[in-house]
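Kindly go through one protein, given below as sequence and tokens. The question is how this chain folds according to its tokens.

***
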Amino acid sequence: MGHGHSHGHAGGRHRWRLAVAFGLVAAFFGVELAVGVVSGSLALISDAGHMAADVVALGAALVATKIATRRDDTGRRTYGSYRAEVFASGFTVLVMLGVSAYVVVEAVRRIGEDVDVSSGPLLVVGAIGLVINLVCLALLRGGAQESINVKGAYLEVMADTAGSVGVIAAGVLVSVTGAAVWDTVVAVAIGVFVAVRAVLLGREVLAVLGQHAPEGLDLDAVVSDLERVPGVAEVHDLHAWTLTSGMNVATAHLVTGVGADPQAVLAGAQSTLREVHGIEHATLQVEVTPARECREATW
């Protein structure tokens, strides 16, 4: 027993933010890559590679939000296609790790080589990239707390903002010292930073796909609160997980006391889960005595 399946969709509400950010980043990517190749700057090329990752990640996020809101005509996707956003975030993690690995490998390959890097393009392109990334951060920040999909794109752009700062720093260091090695050092620093952000996001993605309890949800507190609902004598077989960002769901069995009204118990339990723990969709089974199947279950 439970309520309807009508949910607000966080990622869909912020789709326009993703679209604008995608356009800005895609336009700048080509410019940075061309200047990086001409100037011979690994920092610019690595940042362009990260920009390419941004383009792919933002594009995947856009597609995911479209899929997530698509109507299911098969009747098989009983929870809809909301998990598409989580898969898109996982893809973003892989792209970020790939870019990081490329930068580090390329930096190691350059050890001992005499590389000539022009500082002018580093400073100009880095400054332009910083402005674009700051605009994208401002756009995506509004949805990063509500959608793991938008958060993945936000972290991508945040890492690229650090990359733009690194490119500017590399330009200054190369110009002041005349040593091209700073270009490689900054490139490695960018790669490591991106990898760390990717791992953190990857842990969140795996937690959702592994159907872990939502972050910050205390299951013992949930049981205690449900047991305080008038008419509830016992709570067992409680499960809670995240379908996608902003959509926490749960199932539980409620054993009622003598003379309790099952409908009143159900309404009180749903209200507690929704208002106290932020779980808007709960499938609850009300039992007069614990079902035999629950006692016999092996998992």
The chain has two domains: 10-209, 219-296. The radius of gyration is 25 Å.
